[in-house]
């Protein structure tokens, strides 16, 4: 069921939908009716209730494995493509942040967050990440951009300012001096419980940079400036400096490699040594067994791709090694890569490529989560609508959003339609329980709109 501009319209997944009277089954004939004793009929509701309670007590999901349908609601329409979920106002309910606005869980009304300039069919922001930067117990937003080199954090102004619809003060977290940024991941690479800022560049010969969040409490580092982020290429317009920097953390860069990058990024233990590696468009960086921030990482040029952000690293076929799920971010193609025996002479990793879907283009962002409650993770992806402003193959085709269930016996995926014609992807996909009903919901932001999809 869709809710948009006050209108409701239905969508069906893996089935035929019709509102015509002819679509209903005809009345049962007397020959089709089986008479049930009254006493047994009266017991039926009680037995069903007991069975349902037993399933819940056992931790079961009565909807496990069944196709999932969603109520779809448009929240905003602009060129923003970043989105994240978290409890922004501290009321115990999950909210959404998406570019210029945040959306309060429950009513989902748009509220101001920050200013972002439009730029050549995009906005100058390539993702939203929630983190308590100043240690005040409230979630702030960290965001970078495509061409500007600065990373900003936007300070959560607190309950009263949020209630009044005030914008969030912008602070410079780091000027990386690096441009041509496709996007980033915010993942813990070294296992210390704190995420790293992992920046991917579409340019193959750009350095591969990872930035650590280091606690600056007690350090004599210079205070950052409060700025008005204009989003214009070349940086942000500086405003008056605050007398002190309220950020608890500094971003400290580490170069994994000087000249191997390229469109697409992922993290995961690719070679089974217990360490989290970093994958990029041209290959993968192997994390050292010790002192990961004191040395470059070994680079393996095992492929040359223009891939999704992220790719998925997982043991899909359960044979003990890591496989990959990869989308072509600016072309047709979604596939899984089955890891096979490495080359005996060189040790180079080898893969057998299996097609998942080639019917739509620009599967730029992927999510890997148990969507239907059967205990197995599912793949969520769709079209990054107007990713290159119609210049990609299939760029003018309608947006779409799908999820895929994995069948271990046949080693194949089955596609399920979430939406076609309205909802597409941007640079991030949120997949978690957003309304407290223990079902996994979805939120996306892209050029077809910012959407909330609540599982039914």
TrEMBL record:
Coiled coil: none annotated. Keywords: Signal. Residues 218-230 have a biased composition (Polar residues). Residues 218-244 are annotated as: Disordered. The keyword Signal applies. This is FG-GAP repeat protein. It comes from Stieleria neptunia. The lineage of its organism: Bacteria, Pseudomonadati, Planctomycetota, Planctomycetia, Pirellulales.
């Amino acid at each position: 069921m869709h809710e948009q501009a006050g209108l409701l319209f239905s969508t069906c997944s893996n089935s035929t939908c019709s509102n015509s009277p002819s679509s209903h089954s005809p009345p049962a004939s007397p020959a089709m009716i089986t008479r049930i004793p009254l006493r047994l009929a009266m017991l039926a509701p009680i037995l069903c209730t007991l069975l349902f309670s037993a399933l819940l007590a056992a931790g079961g999901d009565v909807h496990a494995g069944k196709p999932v349908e969603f109520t779809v609601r448009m929240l905003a329409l602009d060129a923003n493509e970043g989105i994240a979920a978290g409890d922004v106002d501290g009321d115990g309910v999950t909210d959404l942040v998406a570019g210029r606005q945040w959306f309060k869980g429950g009513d989902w009304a748009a509220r101001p967050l920050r200013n972002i300039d439009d730029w050549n069919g995009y906005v100058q922001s390539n993702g939203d990440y929630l983190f308590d930067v100043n240690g005040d117990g409230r979630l702030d937003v960290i965001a970078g951009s495509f061409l500007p080199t600065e990373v900003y954090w936007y300070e959560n102004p607190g309950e009263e300012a949020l209630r009044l619809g005030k914008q969030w003060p912008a602070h410079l977290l780091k000027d990386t001096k690096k441009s041509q940024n496709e996007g980033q991941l915010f993942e813990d690479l070294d296992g210390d419980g704190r995420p790293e800022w992992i920046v991917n560049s579409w340019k193959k010969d750009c350095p591969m940079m990872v930035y650590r969040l280091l606690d600056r409490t007690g350090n004599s580092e210079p205070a950052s400036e409060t700025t008005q982020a204009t989003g214009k290429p070349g940086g942000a317009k500086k405003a008056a400096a605050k007398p002190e920097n309220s950020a608890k953390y500094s971003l400290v860069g580490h170069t994994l490699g000087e000249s191997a990058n390229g469109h697409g990024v992922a993290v995961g233990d690719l070679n089974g040594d217990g360490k989290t590696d970093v994958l990029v468009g041209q290959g993968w960086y192997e994390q050292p067994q010790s002192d990961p921030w004191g040395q470059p990482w070994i680079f393996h040029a095992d492929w040359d791709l223009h891939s999704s952000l992220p790719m998925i690293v997982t043991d899909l076929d359960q044979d003990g090694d890591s496989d990959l799920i990869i989308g072509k971010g600016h072309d047709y193609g979604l596939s899984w890569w089955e890891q096979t025996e490495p080359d005996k002479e060189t040790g180079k990793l080898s893969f057998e490529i299996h097609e998942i879907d080639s019917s739509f283009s620009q599967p730029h962002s992927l999510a890997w989560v148990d969507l239907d409650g059967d205990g197995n993770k599912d793949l969520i992806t769709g079209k990054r609508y107007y990713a290159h402003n119609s210049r990609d193959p299939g760029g003018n085709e309608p947006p779409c959003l799908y999820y895929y269930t994995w069948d271990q016996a046949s080693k194949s995926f089955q596609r399920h339609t979430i939406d076609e014609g309205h909802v597409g992807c941007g640079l991030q996909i949120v997949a978690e329980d957003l309304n407290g009903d223990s079902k996994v919901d979805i939120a996306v932001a892209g050029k077809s709109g910012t959407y909330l999809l609540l599982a039914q």
